[in-house]
Automatic annotation (TrEMBL):
Species: Mycolicibacterium arseniciresistens
Keywords: ATP-binding, Nucleotide-binding, Transport
Entries under CDD domains matching the protein: ABC_NrtD_SsuB_transporters
InterPro entries: AAA+_ATPase, ABC_transporter-like_ATP-bd, ABC_transporter-like_CS, ABC_transporter_ATP-bind, P-loop_NTPase
Lineage: Bacteria, Bacillati, Actinomycetota, Actinomycetes, Mycobacteriales
Domain ABC transporter: 6-235
Keyword Nuclease: no
Record's protein name: ABC transporter ATP-binding protein
Gene Ontology MF terms: ATP binding
Domain of life, source organism: Bacteria
Amino acid sequence: MTAAGIDIDGLTVRYAGAASVLDHLDLTIDAGTFLAVLGPSGCGKSTLLNCIAGFVTPTDGHVSFNGALVTGPGRERGVVFQRDVLFPWASVGGNISFALRAAKVPRAQRRTRIAELLEAVGLAPDVAGRSPHELSGGMRQRVGIARALANGPQVLLMDEPFGALDALTREQMQDLVIDLWQRSGTTIVFITHDVDEAIRIASSIVVMGADGSIAERLDNPLPLPRTAGRIAEFADYAPLRRRLHDLLRPTLSASPGDPS
């Protein structure tokens, strides 16, 4: 996978009869960045991600990817959704190969690719024949990541993918995504409302205001690896965490409650 950059210029999304969800937002995401987007519910985090994915058409402004305007979904942008969206009628292998079949990848190559992706997300090859309902929540999210990676996207877009997981599984999934990012150099945009999750995984953190704008962007100075349970030992941890909470505090009281 080759990393790619994203440019967002004057991005505005307004729904009929409602205030703007995003309001003239400007943001550049350099190739290879692991960007966490923080903010309360209703501030436009998911709407921003959906604009990058091509699922939402802006009211004004635009998103460009590698210099080309985003006008719809594309194979170069893989998406891991907030909710489990695996096809219940298909096997794990069938879920992962869905995009490969659409791309007319031959059957033998699909089997090889499925095995590679299962290994990449830490699952055994025999999981390919199992049904989604047989898997734990963490395993299902691993399959969701594998499916998003099937076509070798240059950007991975993740919308609060670990919010429903228990604490230990969540840490394991964070480790997985950090490892994937370090090995591939893929650009990642990761939506979260969890300050500690953002600090642990991201190379850069954006805090969104309640008005759908960017309150501030901060580079993450903490070195990798950032081991769960020991991250607070870094000297820069407490100042960074305090700054993020200071930025979020006014947005929590002013959140408009529009779609996130």
